[in-house]
Amino acid sequence: MSKLDLADAPERKIPFNDLSIQWRQIAASVRDDFETTFDQSAFCLGPFVERFETEISQFLGARHAIGVNSGTSALHLAVLAAGLGPGDEVIVPAHSFIATLWGVLYAGATPVFCDVEAETGTLDVRAAERCITPATKAIIPVHLYGQPADMAAVKALAKRHGLTIIEDAAQAIDARWEGQHVGTIGAMGCFSFYPGKNLGAAGEAGLVVTNDDDLAAKMRSLRNHGQSERYIHQAVGYNYRMDGLQGVVLRRKLPLLGAWTASRRELAMRYSERLAGTPLQLPAVRYGEHVWHLYVVRTPDRDRLRAALAERGIETGLHYPVPLHKQPCLANLPSAGQGFPSAEAWASQCLSLPLFTGMTFDDVDYVADTVRASY
Ligand SMILES: *Cc1c(COP(=O)(O)O)cnc(C)c1O
Hints:
This protein is an alpha/beta fold.
């Protein structure tokens, strides 16, 4: 490093996320269970995954919880269990992570884009109603950034038109709507335990929950090669099993999730206090209890602000910079040609500020002061 670089180097670094703090809290307790897992060679599903399934179903208040190898697989199983396939239309928001749609596409059904709310970024249910055709069979509300979507409106719409609700709760574990955990409101709810999610595995993992015995039985079988009993395959299945070691990690993290959610809420409130009065559009909490997977602000000068923060050692994220209807691989979908002004505005203006377990108020103040100083 030259002298000049040293002089220019920021004094302080705030990473976008830091998972090491969570790991330190469970490191001692997982070691014995890892040992047991290796001793028993219980690498695929196994006793710890079973215990995790029982414990998380109790935590969420869901009758069935099925551990899988990713949130994407959870969504695929839900779409298959709902019986969706070629010719069926599924309403999805135009602003989300692309995995919201993969299951629909894998099953050969057609995602139909719908715009999102300017205030929350979640599905605009009035816009969804205009997308309905005789082929519409299901709707996938996304609890984006950790905030429940407008589930009262989603439920009413689904009831009027006989739609299956599949919740994409990948970003929103522990979020509640009218006292109910998200993921348990619709027919099926899908969670991701990707390491950076609020409850993160040490690798890839996911979960699908339901209160319906038949849907649960279908998904349990499809997850494990379509087996009904050993070596009897009733359906074309998948290998979507959760790893035994992920069951260990997730089980040890679950009891800590409530405290982690509480600390995220405090950090988010601190941001909102400290950023009040700036030109930024701050996150609005509209529907139920937000768990702040992401703290996303909006501003037309997003790229300038992002660069200004980076210069002061602050790492930020973009969730997500390209709306789904503009993705190259989705350009051929019939609804992709329409404009979705709110989704497009989110894509061009969103900026995710650092927020993670173990971040301090002092860190938040440094970020907020840097934002202010840039204006
Ligand atoms: C993370 C995520 C997924 C996919 O989960 P994976 O575990 O990464 O497959 C789906 N939908 C949303 C909204 C997500 O954030």
